[in-house]
Amino acid sequence: MALCCAISNEVPEVPVVSPSSGAVFERRIIEKYIIENGVDPISGKELKVEDLIEIKTPPIVKPKPPSATSIPATLKSMQDEWDALMLHTFTQRQQLQTARQELSHALYQHDAACRVIARLTKEVTAAREALATLKPQVAVVAPQPTHAPEAAAAGGGGAAAVGMSGEVVSRLQERATALTQERKRRGRTVPEGLLPPDQIRSFLTLASHPGLHSASVPGILALDINPSDQSRLLTGGNDRNATVFNKDTEQVVAILKGHTKKVTRVIYHPDEDTVITASPDHTIRVWNVPTSQTSVILRSHEGPVTGLSLHPTGDYVLSTSTDQHWAFSDIRTGALLTKVSDSSGVSLTTAQFHPDGLIFGTGTENSQVKIWDLKEQSNVANFPGHVGPVTSISFSENGYYLATAAEDACVKLWDLRKLKNFKTIQLEEGYVIKELCFDQSGTYLAIAGSDVRVYLCRQWQELKVFNDHTASATGVRFGRHAHYLASTSMDRTLKLYGLE
């Protein structure tokens, strides 16, 4: 049996064998390979020239191929090799020219992209500065609304608005300026301690509490978390009560009784042990939690109160109602500062302050989302596109995004800088959305409805779906840094989700 070189597959003139792989090689070929690489080409292990073992074989005389036995055949072979060389050279020249063109195009694109990025950065900076001032945009100004004194003169009743004094307006502006600067500073980095998306995907149901409200009239309709004490949660129920619950001790802290109809909106004050509740009984109540007593009753509306939002100062509350008005009231004195009618003449369904507090959004029965300037008390932008009554709106902490939902099974995301819808999350047909909520960093968006869902903002990617409730979810809130998630439902339970 003739030997065969493992590299050239030809009979070796001076055969050697590698002690590493046991393969046979032509000495001159394997020596060149070892000098260049230092390893056995078959096994890949380290190999030296000295390690090679020479094999003693009789000399082999290779016969010449028939094609090389005549001068014409030799010339033909050389001509073929020359032709092949020319073709290969031509192909290489073509590839080189193509590579040069692609490189030139890539450099041009890079230069153009740098110019576009610089221009966009300049425009974003200008837009942020413009948004910080929160000035109404003339191009989208709606007809002037009717103010409360005019409505009263036309035959309306209810509490009389005392007006927003210069001191109140100045305080609102100072607070907005401070919050804008603080938000810009926080927006440069991800908040320390914020749970990453992978851990949100790992959330499990940690607890379920069914005993917070009466079983005879089932259903929890509203939820909020104490911003300063994350262990305390506030719920409003069909049983006309609001309940303060400590999730760590699993004890009811206070049961707030006083409304004559169900409690549909609740807010936990960020700096005080105070809560605010609203009801279809036309009233808004401010409660002292330690005493479980009502400290102030606001009678700002002539119809059921449908929306409630606390101003960042912590002293004023915004409310909406089916009486087609929004109202701005002082929770310390109970005074109605201003009351404005929606020019469209339809019921208002929800309300939410912008994080800076100088603008706010309302939802209407006829699918409109409206942005209002608080100081000017005017409608400065309208966002159409939903079908059915608007059920919930939520501003992101970054101050630029607004999420809205209606009875059309979709969530729309709006850019307040461009005043347009840039993303629509379409859910399953028949999906009922009750509430939207961004976390405090604006990184995640939670949806409460037929189930509870969490989305990653910017990518708007679905991270987690919770199907634990046996009825539709009515409220959802994130704990600080998204360390846990809470939801309420018509099944009369409060559920908590987090990491084990």
The tally of beta strands, per DSSP, is: 32
Number of H- or I-type helical stretches: 5
Q: What structural class results from the helix and strand content?
A: alpha+beta
Mean pLDDT: 88
Q: Beta fraction of the residues?
A: 25-35%
Overall 3D shape: elongated
Rg on CA atoms, Å:
37 Å
Main pleated-sheet profile: 5 strands, antiparallel
In the sheet with the most strands, the strands line up as 4-17-16-15-14
State the end-to-end CA separation.
70 Å
Parts with pLDDT < 50 across at least 5 consecutive residues: 135-157
Helix content: 10-25%
Task: Walk me through what this model shows.
With 500 residues, the chain is of the alpha+beta class. The chain is 21% helix and 35% strand. The protein has five helices and 32 strands. The protein has helices spanning 27-37, 71-133, 148-153, 166-186, 197-201; strands spanning 15-17, 24-26, 53-54, 146-147, 204-209, 220-225, 232-237, 241-246, 251-257, 265-268, 274-278, 284-288, 293-298, 305-310, 316-321, 325-330, 336-341, 348-353, 359-364, 369-373, 378-383, 390-395, 401-406, 410-415, 420-426, 433-438, 444-449, 452-456, 461-466, 473-478, 484-489, 494-498. The strands form eight sheets. A five-stranded antiparallel sheet has the order 4-17-16-15-14. Strand 28 and strand 29 (461-466) form a beta hairpin. The radius of gyration is 37 Å and the shape is elongated. 37% of the residues are buried. Mean pLDDT is 88; it is low at 135-157.
